[in-house]
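Hi all, posting the design record for the shared folder.

TITLE: backbone redesign
STEP: 1 of 1
STRUCTURE INPUT:
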């Protein structure tokens, strides 16, 4: 049976269980099972490679010792073991981070995990299906990448879980032009399921890793933080599948839940798609300077990224970043204006790629942009590149997503930052704006393509799609406005008090 068939069978079995309610819980259930199976496969490899290897968790909890036998415990006995023994032990392990980092990874992965299944016989069936996948086989491990992609797409449709998924075409393009190298610290402060980190890992491995020592270096380069349990667990599993033996740098927490002034870490490369359109819990904004405080998540992440990018030292270029942000960041005023001013003063905001509608369908229809910047030198010019739909395409969808090949025109045009992108020329999709013009616009970066006239559509289907798109954008902007007004009201009330 193929891996895809195995995963589909697992989901079908879970639908019969009364304890599993909806796609999100099915994915959560599958995630901790996958984690333990992948972890055990890695344990077997490490045991073979190292003399006197000691398992990081009690051996009775390793997958091979309770799950691998198709005729093993089932029914109520299996449920009792999982709920009262396995989960209790893994959540409450006493772990020394230095002596047992892999044990720490397991404890973190299970900190907020749950067994949703109530039927032990169905749980055994799910486990037996997972046992059909051999994660020690390099071919099967490679094929699992496709299945992992499908899991992420399923997440995209599971309620609000779509925020964890960035289309792979965008991830690959960003990593390609940002070009993380061996030895550079790579960070995603809102890493979700680890798409940017996995892509960065593969990029460095394919282009710069030669020796086993290089591979050891690469494993320590990857850093990420994820606030929610399910994507954090998937990200940790994703990193292990990519060969990171101890993904302790994948933290479970809120990156913003720390005063900006207390950050000592610096990173060479930051690639991320932070959550946008949402607001942070009360008090998070207090971690930022008073004049820059806001509860809008994307604005806070942009400030953080500017802060933690490595400064240039001894002639070495400063840290570089690529960040996916909504149109609202480009044209927004107030705190947004102050953030953009700081960005262009502390960094070279050299390129903004304007993405078309529908890239993140069905999660959101809001138009998005990719901002590329490097810390250490102020901005002189901002290049814009408006990414066009491919011929014959009027919008993207879940079944017809953006493809990496579409970015070939940008890749051919891109050039080198070391020579100030001297080879770039304006064309129907690309144009340059001086920082003086940006300042004159009060840092409004929502600058239209001067080479294209507005096209008026008359096709009824196109007009209907455009209307629906506008209604979604209006609704999301209305929610943002409510949050802003709520913050202002709170601030006003506090001042009067």
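Okay, here is what came back for every position:
SEQUENCE:
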């Amino acid at each position: 049976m193929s891996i895809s068939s195995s995963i589909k069978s697992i989901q079908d079995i879970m639908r019969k269980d009364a304890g599993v309610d909806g796609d999100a819980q099915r994915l959560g259930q599958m995630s901790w099972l996958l984690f333990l199976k992948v972890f055990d496969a890695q344990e077997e490899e490490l045991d073979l490679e190292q003399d006197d290897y000691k398992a990081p968790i009690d051996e009775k909890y390793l997958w091979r010792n309770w799950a691998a036998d198709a005729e093993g415990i089932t029914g109520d006995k299996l449920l009792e073991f999982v709920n009262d023994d396995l989960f209790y032990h893994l959540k409450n392990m006493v772990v020394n981070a230095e002596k047992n980092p892999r044990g720490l990874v397991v404890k973190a992965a299970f900190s907020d995990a749950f067994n949703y299944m109530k039927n032990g016989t169905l749980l055994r069936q799910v486990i037996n299906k997972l046992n059909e996948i051999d994660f020690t086989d390099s071919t099967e491990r490679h094929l699992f990448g496709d299945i992992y992609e499908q899991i992420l797409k399923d997440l995209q449709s599971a309620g609000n879980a779509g925020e964890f998924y960035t289309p792979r075409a965008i991830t690959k393009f960003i990593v390609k032009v940002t070009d993380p190298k061996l030895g550079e610290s790579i960070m995603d402060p809102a890493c979700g399921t680890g798409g940017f980190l996995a892509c960065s890992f593969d990029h460095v491995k394919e282009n710069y890793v030669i020796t086993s020592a290089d591979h050891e270096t690469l494993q320590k380069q990857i850093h990420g933080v994820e606030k929610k349990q399910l994507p954090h667990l998937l990200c940790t599993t994703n990193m292990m599948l990519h060969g990171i033996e101890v993904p302790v740098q994948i933290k479970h927490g809120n990156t913003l839940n720390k005063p900006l002034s207390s950050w000592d870490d610096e990173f060479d490369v930051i690639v991320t798609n932070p959550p946008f359109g949402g607001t942070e819990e009360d008090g998070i904004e207090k971690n930022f300077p008073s004049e820059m405080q806001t509860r809008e998540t994307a604005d806070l992440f942009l400030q953080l990224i500017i802060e933690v990018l490595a400064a240039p030292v001894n002639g070495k270029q400063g840290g570089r970043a690529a960040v996916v942000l909504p149109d609202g960041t480009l044209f927004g005023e107030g705190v947004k204006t102050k953030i953009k001013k700081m960005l262009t003063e502390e960094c070279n905001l050299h390129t903004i790629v304007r993405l078309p509608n529908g890239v993140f369908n069905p999660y959101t229809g809001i138009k998005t942009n990719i901002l590329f910047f490097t810390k250490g030198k102020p901005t002189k010019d901002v290049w814009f590149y408006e990414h066009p739909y491919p011929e014959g395409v009027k919008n993207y969808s879940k079944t017809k997503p953006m493809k990496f090949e579409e970015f070939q025109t940008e890749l051919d045009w891109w050039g080198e930052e070391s020579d100030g992108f001297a080879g770039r020329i304006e064309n129907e999709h690309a144009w340059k704006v001086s920082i003086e013009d940006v300042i004159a616009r009060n840092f409004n970066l929502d600058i239209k393509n001067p080479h294209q006239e507005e096209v008026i559509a008359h096709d009824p289907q196109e007009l209907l799609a455009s209307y629906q798109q506008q209604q979604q954008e209006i609704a999301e902007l209305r929610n943002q406005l409510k949050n802003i007004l709520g913050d202002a009201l709170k601030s006003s009330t506090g001042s009067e008090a």
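COMMENT: Residues 460-496 form the longest helix (37 residues).
Let me know if anyone wants the other runs.
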